[in-house]
Amino acid sequence: MSNLVQVDFHAGRTAKGERVGVSAVIGDLKQAQENLKRWPVDRIIELFDEFGFRLMDRRLSIHGDYPNSGIAYIAGWCRKSNLVSLLQSAFQSRYVLDRFVDSEAKTDRSYRAHSRGLVVHWMAGNVPTLGFLSLIQGVLTKNANLIKPASGSNDLLAQLLFVLSTAKEGEPQSGRDLVKSMAVVRYDRNRKDIGAAISKEADVRVFWGGDDSVATMRALPTKLHTRDLVFSNKTSFMAIDNGSLETMDMEAIARRVAMDISVFEQKACASPHTLFLETEDASVVQQFALCLKEALSRALASIPKTIPSQNEISAVLNLRAQYDMFHQAWYSEGTEFSILSDDYFQLGPPIGNRTIYLRKIDNLQKLTELITPQVQSVGILAKPETFERVTALFSEKGVHRFTNIGAITHFEVPWDGYILPQYLVRWTSRPKQS
Amino acid sequence: MEFKHLDTLLEHQPYELRRSDKEPLFLEAMKAVALHHYTNCKPYKTLCDKRGFDPEKFVRLSDLPYLPTSVFKDALLLSIPEKDLFREINSSATTTGRPSRIGLDKPTSLRQSKCFNRIVLERLSNKRRKFAVLDVPESIKRTSVVGARSSTIRSLLFCASEAHTCVEEVDGKFTIDEERLDELLMQAEKDGEQVVIFGFTYILYAYVVRPLLQKSKTYNLNGSKIIHIGGWKKLESEKVSPEKLIVDCSQVFGVKKGDVVDFYGFTEQSGMVYPTCEEVVRHMPVWGDVLARDPLTLRPLPPGKEGLLQFITPIQTSYPGHSVLTEDMGYIVGVDNCPCGRKGTAFKVVGRAKQVEVRGCGDIMAEKFA
Amino acid sequence: MSDIRKRCVDIFAKVMEVDSATINVDTNPGNLSQWDSLSHVQLLVGLEREFSIEINPEEGMDLESFNLVYEFVKEKLS
Q1: Mean pLDDT by 10-residue block, N- to C-terminus, for chain A (434 residues)?
Q2: In chain A, where the domains are located
Q3: What is the DSSP string of B30-50?
Q4: ipTM surpasses 0.85
Q5: Can you give the pLDDT at residue A111?
Q6: Chain A contact probe: residue of C18, C32, C37, C40 with most A CBs at under 10 A
Q7: Could you give the angle at the alpha carbon of B33 between the alpha carbons of B29 and B34, nearest 5°?
Q8: Which residue has the higher pLDDT, A101 or B141?
Q9: Cα–Cα distance between C41 and A52 in angstroms, integer?
Q10: Which CATH number fits the domain that encloses residue C48?
Q11: pLDDT band for position B261 (50/70/90)?
């Protein structure tokens, strides 16, 4: 059987459905990376900044072709200030990526971070923005990058790379040169031989989501020193303490909760599915539910609805009927969103499609019992003392990330407990030269 | 319990009333039954109150709250005291593995059987005929354990003069007893007898019709009926459409296309069955009606537009199954104007929506609750 | 109109492609249909460049009306 993969993007251009040999794709990527690793990191940042700027042009067909895909978010994320601060927080000085930099901690040593070579990103879930954000970190660290998107997903990644290829056109070290070090390929997951061929060339393997498929892919053969990073399927929730409930502007907070729930139709690992209110008063829950219902309605205008799947519609209608019969529910007229409230002490179960469980709890600390390795983020609004106590307890138990309410889906580094760029480089050290 | 309006409705022939004549009767019957469920089924009452629905005051059928079929999987809802429970039926486990639980009292069970039988006879004609059942012998034997498949088969045998099976199960696999089937059909052809060949859709096509076609074997069974029931998913993936099935059956058995009948129904409204007419369209009897709802907005759709099908009928009084939203997509074809001559709402069932599930990286379990 | 306010209005008008006269204190995504997620990002970039300030994502999230934008810029510059 020939080792052909279906290529969305390769050799610096989109290539819808073309079939290319795996070794040819990898060969091209490695060659381009030999070039890329000599570029100044600031040049790469400049290109992404320009890319972000171009992406903001509403007239680009990508906006019409891929509505509600987080393109505006990517455009904002790629700004120079964000990328500089990302690299500074990962490496203190981003110039370690270019040259040896004197250590501040060790007065007699200098350090340099070299690229590792080829980073392969396996995407099991269809959140294309995530694939792109993963990719950017691989590029900033001057690696070649190969992405295998989720089966059945669209070709947004390839289209984004096309826009990137237009940055600083005509100049040396342009977007067109940059994208030669990136490829987006697809193959039948049953073709273990192709998976193995790719895996054996990877210096870093990054797996996003889909626990079953991750296990299968991880079992593929690798080089001895290959580094694996796994970002498995996760769930997230929100909590508001009693102090904040008393003083907060309920409508403003409800609006932020609505944003967190609506983005990506709740499919991201950071999307919250449960909101706990620290109160024993059912009327507070009722009041908040009504505010949230209004806010979710309003959010439909700024985050338009993606039509739910049959399973989602079914699950939502089933739960609504059950909750109307046995608990409490507030929901849109159509299947746009649902707020479900009961007296259970549990997270979820997560449904997606803007379905949120609203529960009361007498003490936020008790939620520690619900934290498992599956919990990723907690959106929290609490007075300082509770905030300190709860973040300490929950993070010890395994929560990776706390955010203010409204910001839970903002991608940042560290993610899932890892500072990703640090895993994409190989450190070398030498005596400091005076 | 008396349901005068319901009884009046059931006095009519299934497809004899035009909408304008049916509507007032139907609405009255639905009001009485909705009120009955509201009064006697506490969870249903709670739901109605939350949705601002007053069973005595509604004027449009589309205002009637609906329960999705999945809700019957998680709770046994009753509008009768438990002591009056006569039978509980369970649907075959679906993709979620949880069967629906439906509680019947004697009147509901009887009413459902009667309604079912009347529709079947109307379509097959009022005669007892020899049945060739494309299933295993156990499906027609009297046993204490009644699976959903046997239950369906047995409910049809009321209009059989004799029933013969011609499928064997060997090592967990089904095989057609070709000799037996050939014997039955050759005899019928020889005697000029009009028989009924009945099987589940996939078994009928994949195990009988297709092999016979491939062997170029045909019969001349003019006047006989081919009836089938059950999902199309497997056949769809093999690129066999309803139209192709009709043409191929007609060719193989030598029957008119209008004599190949596809029955559609679901456990949550047992007794309600919708055979395709001679124009390959399904009809609502006077004791039922159907709406198609937009999957996103949930609003009722006009004829021709595909949506989730909601079925409304007053015939079950032991449980609140009078207004049920299924997971099947379909559309209203027309009202009172089918060339077959049957009055009432005509509709088509398309099947489950074909969207590919979009998975994110969040740990979602919608399908466990669907 | 103060200089800062006028510059804010001009940025809004340019990004949303509307007449400056239509921008007032109450202008928000609810009453200005051109103010969607894409124009919001363009707005933030425009403000950063015009006033040489930095706006982090959480700050950006809170800029839900013209008035909030104006007050925010004033505070950043003071």
Answers
A1: 88 90 96 97 98 93 88 91 93 95 91 97 79 93 95 90 96 97 92 94 90 82 93 91 94 95 88 96 97 95 86 92 96 97 95 96 97 93 97 95 93 88 96 87
A2: 4-233+419-431, 235-403
A3: HHHHHHHHHHH-HHHHHHHHH
A4: yes
A5: 95
A6: C37
A7: 115
A8: A101
A9: 10
A10: 1.10.1200.10
A11: very high
Q: Which CATH number fits domain A4-233+419-431: 3.40.50.2030, 3.40.190.10, 3.40.1190.20, 3.40.605.10?
A: 3.40.605.10
- Residues of chain B with C-beta less than 8 angstroms from the C-beta of A128: none
A59 near C CB under 8 A: no
- List, in sequence order, every residue forming a beta bridge with A109; answer none if it has no partner: A431
| Chain A residues within 8 A of C42 when measuring between CB atoms | 56
Token representation of residue B181: 């089937």
Pick B70's closest partner by Cβ from A126, A318, A353.
A318
Q: Tokens at residue A239, please?
A: 């909590």
* Candidate from B67, B362, B369 with C-beta closest to A266: B362
Instruction: Beginning with the edge strand found earlier in the chain, give each strand of the sheet holding A401-403 in spatial order.
Output: A328-331, A338-341, A355-361, A272-278, A235-240, A375-381, A401-403
Q: Quote the pLDDT of residue B209.
A: 93
- The mean pLDDT value of chain B amounts to 88
CB pair distance less than 8 Å for B75 and A325: yes
CA dist., res. A339 & res. A326, Å (int)? 14
Q: For residue C12, what are the domain limits?
A: 3-77
- Indicate the residue type of A76: G
Contact (CB<8Å) B360/A352: yes
Residue B145 has pLDDT above 60, yes or no: no
Parallel, antiparallel or unpaired: strands B345-351 and B323-335: antiparallel
User: What CATH number was assigned to the domain covering residues B4-91+271-353?
Assistant: 3.40.50.12780
Domain range A235-403, its CATH number among 3.40.640.10, 3.40.1050.10, 3.30.1780.10, 3.40.309.10: 3.40.309.10
CA-CA-CA-CA dihedral for B21, B24, B28, B34, to nearest 10: 100
| Pick from A172-176, B44-48, B140-144, B237-241: least confident | B140-144
Closest by Cβ to A81, choosing from C54, C58, C61: C54
Per-residue pLDDT of C65-77, as tens digits, reads 999 999 999 999 9
